[in-house]
Amino acid sequence: MSKLSGKVALITGSGRGIGRALALKLAGDGASIVVSDLDETPAEETAKEIRDAGGKAVTCIGNITAPDFGDRLVKTGLEAFGGLDIIVNNAGYTLDGVIQKMSDDQFQTMLDVHVVAPFRILRAAAEPIRMFAKKEAAEGREVFRKVVNVSSMAGTNGNAGQVNYSSAKAAMVGMTKTLSKEWGRFKVNVNCVAFGFIQTRLTTSYDDPASKITIEGKEVQAGVPGSALAALPVMVPLGRAGTPDEAAGGIYLFCIPESDYVSGQVLLVGGGISI
Domain map of the chain by residue range? Predict the structure, then answer.
């Protein structure tokens, strides 16, 4: 039997990049997937790829910052598959600038995307998780559930030009450690993965058209300076950026039964970067 057979996983930002790679990986191990993304086309493509391979997947489309999105995401998983076992808060983007040039809106946007949205999703999941856990305990069963929050080494170590993003990602560490204490009695493992340089739209050069992303009709400049990419062989002990599949592997470790006694931890996935 596959390790995740019968499990239901909600993954935000799973139409592209790391989220997509994770959705395919978990589905390949037996999980039913709620593919969530801002854009319908990539979400449907990911879900179709899962179904074509014999897996189960549905989509939940929309902006994670919408006040009702958390409730809608959790409801989608419950109605489609009747369960709620894995939640991965992965969706996000960057909106860089040095502090003296950063607007209130620029700062608040990153908090809304990377902190408030995951908070609402986990809050929406709290009561269903409590009810499932209560029923399982009454039956004498110990069933573990998984929450994986995606942070960044910008959040654990800081990064010049990203005071908004770094602050938000640091907050995810605090959220993780707090929920690991609150939800331990429900047999929920709550952990965090902090990424370094991973090959996604967020880490392409500013000069690459792919670094410009569209959020509800508004073009946003993501990406990094070309000089930062040129320095990767020196900065990263493994000598290169990670792939989305490699990044997804870090999250996967916290989703499988082998991590049932691991909670409240932050795993750095950065090719050996430690400062």
Answer: 8-200+243-269
CA–CA distance, 197 with 154 (Å, rounded to integer):
10
Q: Which residues are catalytic?
A: 165
**pLDDT tens by residue, 34-92:** 999 999 999 999 999 999 999 999 999 999 999 999 999 999 999 999 999 999 999 99
| Superfamily (CATH) of domain 8-200+243-269 | NAD(P)-binding Rossmann-like Domain (3.40.50.720)
Produce one character per residue of 51-88: b if its CB has 16 or more CB atoms within 10 Å, e if not. Answer: eeeebbbbbbbbebbeeebbeebbebbbebbebbbbbb
Q: CB neighbours (10 Å) of residue 134?
A: 11
Measured over all CA atoms, what is the biggest interatomic distance in the chain, rounded to whole angstroms?
A: 58
Taking a C-beta distance cutoff of 8 angstroms, is the pair 250, 193 a contact? yes
pTM: 0.93
Question: What is the Cα–Cα distance from 12 to 36, expressed in whole angstroms?
Answer: 5
- List the beta bridge partners of residue 223: none
Give the count of beta carbons closer than 10 Å to the beta carbon of residue 178.
Answer: 12
